[in-house]
Structures are given as C-alpha cells and as structure tokens.
Amino acid sequence: MRPTAAPPVPPVLRTADRMIPHRLARSAQRDPVGAARVREWIADRNTARAHTVSRVTFEELDRWGFDTRTGNLRHDTGRFFSVEGLRVETDTGPVRSWNQPIINQPEIGILGILVAEHDGVLHCLLQAKSEPGNVNGVQLSPTVQATRSNYTGVHAGKSVPFIEYFRSPGDGRVLSDVLQSEQAAWFYRKRNRNMIVEVDGPLPVGEDFRWVTLGQLHELCAVDNLVNMDTRTVLAGMPGGFEGAAGTSDRGLADALARSADTAIGGLHTTGELLSWITDRQTEPEVRTSLIPLDDVDDWRRAPDRVHRDDEAFFSVVAVDVASPGREVSAWTQPLLEPHGIGRVAMVVARFDGVLHALMHARVEPGYLEAVELAPTVQWTPRAYSSLGLEPPEFLDVVTAAEGTDRVLFDAELSEEGGRFLHARNRYQIVEVANPVDDRTTPDHQWMTIGQLTGLLQHNNYVNVQARSLVACLRGLA
C-alpha cells in the first residue's frame, strides 16, 4: 500500500499590526538630546567624507556629451538620465505655451528606509550621504537612495548597502511601498519607489549609517538643509505617526493634529468628494507635452559651461566634477540643473471644530504623469514669477501676514534632491490661520484633513514632492 501524502501546510495568515500606531507614537517622543548627537555625527561624517564639487565646461565631462543630431545632453551608455527639450501647450494659467529643457530619467529608483526595534523602540536606519548638489555636503539620507543604474551596477562602482531588503522585500515586512513623483517643473514624468521595510532586530551598520528614532528625525527636520528631500518623501508615507497627542478635551495643536489624522473623524468634505474634486481637476485642464530636441528649445542658448535662457530666468544646466570619498564611485563628472533663486513653499492650515485641515492646491506642472497633483497652498519661485511679469500666487499674502507671529508653526530652509540639482533650496513653512479664508477658496484649492491627505499618500501620483516634505514636517508638530 502506498503511503498517503501529507496534506499541504496552510500558509500562515498575517494580520494588520494594530500596534503600529502605538509603536510609532513611542518612537516619535521628543528627544532633543538624541537629535543633538545625530547632528554631531553628521558633522563628523562631513569632515570624514568631505567632497569637492567644481564647475567645469561641458567638454570636460567624462562620458557625457551633446548628441550631434538632437543636441540632447546624455551619457554614452544611454542610462542614468538625459537633458532634453520639452514643448508644453495648455489652456490654463497665465502662460499657455512654452519650451524648456527638462531632465528625462525614465528608470525608477528606490528610496527606502529600514526600521527595526531597539530596546522596544522603533528606529529608522539613515545614512550620512553627500550629493554633488548639496549646499552643505553631507545630509541625512534614507537607508537606500539609488537609481536603477546605480543598484544594477552600470556605474561599475561598489554595491549599494542594504539594497536586497528593498529589491526582495520578503526579507522584511513592508510598511509602505508606493511610486511617487518628483519635481515636475524639472523632471519629465520622474518617479521613485518610496519604501519602508521593517526587519527583525537591529542590523550591524558601518560608520556612515545610524539608527535614529522618529522623534530625533522630527527634531532634525526643523534644521536648515539637514534632512534631505528623499528622507522627507519616504517619511511622509509612514503609516500613522500622529498618535500620542493630548486628550480630546484639549483643543491645542497636538490634539487638533491627532483628530485630523484620525480617519474615523470627518472633515469638511468626504474622501469621496475629495477624490471627485481631484479627478475633476485632473481632467479639466488640457495639458499637452512632448519631448523635443534640446537644440529646438526657444530662447535658450548653449554656452561652453551652461545652457541658459537669454533673460537668465528659471534655471541653468551646468557641468560639475565631483570627488566624494565613501560613495559607490569616488569621482565622476555629470550635468546638474541649477535653479535661480530660493523658492517658497507654504501650507496654510486651519481648525474646523477642533480638527486641523490643510488647504491643498491642485497644481498643473508639465512633468507630471497626470496633469495635476496636490501641492501645498503656495509653491512659488519669486525670480521666475518676476521674469514673466506675473502677480504673486493666491494666498501668498496670507502666509506673509503671519511672519513674526506664533501662527508660523514651521519655518526652515530645506534642500531639494542633490543628485540632480545644484544648491536647490526652498523655504518651507506651515502657517495656521484663525480665519479659514473660505470666501477666497478657488476651484483649484480645497481643505482636507491630515488623515485624508496621508491616505492619498498610500497611492501613486496624488501628492507632489513639496507637499510630501511638509507632511513629514507636520509629523514633528504632533
């Protein structure tokens, strides 16, 4: 008689971790002393990993050059990214058509943070990393910050540490995993995979990595140009994180934030109404974009060391030579986009029946995969507006009127992505208003709770990178 085969072992059912909110709240407790130690470590790594970035001519670039047929600036492998031209035509806004250079980077990179418990407290593994465009050298980066060309070895450099936890997330427990856009005025349909993966127990790390709590990270987000853009965008997607505020009888800011983040508490609009509004804003404007040869872009010219507009507005494309010990490749050359002037990014918030709401802007930008994403209330580059003779954006006066008062809840200069942009910075602010400015709400602006906003962050292409930075900063206010 043949033996009976053993029945298959059923898979282990995995349930939602209902302790995540409490674990995050414990990790988010304020820790100024711990944050100060992280700053000392960053200063030490800045000394140890001091990099040099020199402006050079385009002819001095190694393996980069202008295509003889199109004028596009590209790497000889065809990988990494290229600088091409973009033609834009739209039926909305004060400027209805234009051409511009834009970075085309079709490959999807990984921005990932590993988390693990140390002595019962959740910690994030962050990296002290220098980027050629950073204004101050080393900044606090995610565990992994790598393009596909980097982590597949096109650069012929060292392997990316910890990449295996994000390429094979079964080795850990995925807390967040979503494709998100980046600066759509400078990138053409660029997206990165934003991931948070929990591992069992602390892993051994090198001197360029450090485990930090959420509380320490929140403290550091308020320091100028310290926590880089990639860390902020991943942090924004952390599930929960606003728990542990004051009791419901307290109408203070912490309670208003906690109530706002509670998805069981209603806002001025239902989530269904907000999704309908977003869909309407995405379908209402007609935005047509097409990549064109860089040589065909009007009003821009190529000099030996930069591509720039005749009126010196917006940005230039420049070339740099980089020496950066500790990176996967220690020396290289590349193009960078250099913005002209420091921008201003502000989120206006207000309390409705004790629930904090953010005033979000459905903003059109040429590089979005969809025509529109949710942006902060104000997203403004003064030099660009003045060069076009445009009036300041709606609600900027509300933000400036709060200057010097306790209604400014957050105010710091934060850097944008240093791997593609040279010294790109914005002044980020969160401003609370007592008068919710209802009578001035435009069709392109809408109030929503923090829970509704963070719910959208679990999906692709709803919330832009500037708004995600401010969501990360909002967490620190709780």
CATH third-level topology: Nucleoside Triphosphate Pyrophosphohydrolase
Structural category: alpha+beta
**CATH homology superfamily name:** EvaA sugar 2,3-dehydratase subunit
Shape field: globular
Q: First CA to last CA: what distance? A: 69 Å
Give a quick account of the main beta sheet: strands, pairing sense, barrel closure.
7 strands, mixed
Uncertain runs with pLDDT below 50, 5 residues or more?
Answer: 245-250
* Alpha-carbon Rg, integer: 23 Å
Please count the helical segments: 12
Share in helix: 10-25%
How many beta-strand segments? Answer: 24
What fraction strand?
25-35%
Number of domains: 1
Explain what this protein looks like in three dimensions.
It comes from Pseudonocardia endophytica. This is Oxidase EvaA. Residues 36-237, 272-474 form the dTDP-4-dehydro-6-deoxy-alpha-D-glucopyranose 2,3-dehydratase domain. One of its GO terms (molecular function) is lyase activity. The protein is of the alpha+beta class and 478 residues long. The protein is 22% helix and 33% strand. Strand 3 (73-75) and strand 4 (82-90) form a beta hairpin. It is globular, with a radius of gyration of 23 Å.
